[in-house]
Amino acid sequence: MTDAANLTRKTITVGAGTLAREIAIIHRAARKKTSGPAFVWLGGYRSDMTGTKAVELDALAGELGLASIRFDYSGHGASGGAFRDGTISRWLEEAIAVLDDIRPKRVILVGSSMGGWITLRLVQELKKRKRAAKVDGIVLIAPAPDFTAELIEPKLTEVERQSLSERGYFEEHSEYSTEPNIYTRDLIEDGRKNSVMTGIIETGCPVHILQGMKDPDVPYAHALKLVEFVPADDVVLTLIRDGDHRLSRPQDIEKLRSAVSALILND
Q: Which residues form a coiled coil (predicted)?
């Protein structure tokens, strides 16, 4: 059962004054008498909640009668705000606001690429709260925590460094869009404040990482490094030999569904 009857589309306002932006949400309510965690989708850089993996995750929730929550960060998809204003802190604030609005009791967090970073930061922030959703499990798809410091800054050219200094941003060709990727000085500086790969990441729940070995954007060595910071008895790493960054092929989606379903079974 994957009907649209249980879907609600809404927007919430995050921030005040000049920082206010409208965040678009798609919420699938759980079927009555169905207990279990809500699936929460945290998308990647320049991705939105209508992408293949996000839709497939919502479909799985519908089949199981569980709730699902999708939203677009500011500057992405159907949400307001300027993309160039985006930082990890800003997008994290929006993720927290979405959970505060819908108030699920239990969640399984599914983060893709940059969404993996925001997922790990979200877990850290939820742990600081007395009343917060319980995180039953985490699935990370080609996770890119600390990507600004780990993957971007070491490869900056002199031209890009000069652009950051003089214009506050630099542009990079995108394999997935006709528009270039834009990386701002604010994003990079804020990224340092949100680093997670600096010590043990206490998730308090099982973690399953799906990583393509032919990923041109986030090398699988980055996933191997991430594993060093997650308690070994709580993490599973699945390397997909011919997998790319998107991991949106039917066989990849099946691995995603299996990983999420296994976290429910282990609940």
A: none
The pLDDT tens digits for 98-153 are 999 999 999 999 999 999 999 999 999 999 998 899 999 999 999 999 999 999 99
The residue with tokens 């930082």 is 87
> ∠ CA 46-50-53 to the nearest 5 degrees?
85
List the alpha helices (DSSP H) in the chain. 52-64, 88-102, 114-127, 147, 158-167, 185-193, 220-227, 250-265
Q: What are the angstrom distances between the C-alpha of 113 and each of 8, 59, 78, 131, 161?
A: 26, 21, 20, 28, 24
Please name which of 63, 77, 53, 54 lies closest in space to residue 30, comparing C-alpha atoms.
63
Q: Residue range 44-56: average pLDDT?
A: 97
d(CA 167, CA 164): 6
How much is the average pLDDT of 166-179?
87
Q: Tell me the C-alpha distance between 84 and 37, whole Å.
A: 34
CATH, range 7-263 = 3.40.50.1820
8 Å CB contact between 6 and 34: no
Q: What value, to the nearest 5°, has the Cα angle with vertex 98 and ends 105 and 212?
A: 90
3-state SS, residue 107: strand
Distance separating alpha carbons of residues 38 and 35, to the nearest angstrom: 9
Question: Count of CB atoms within 10 A of residue 33's CB?
Answer: 6
* Phi, psi values for residue 10, rounded to 5°: -155, 170
Region 244-249: mean pLDDT is 97
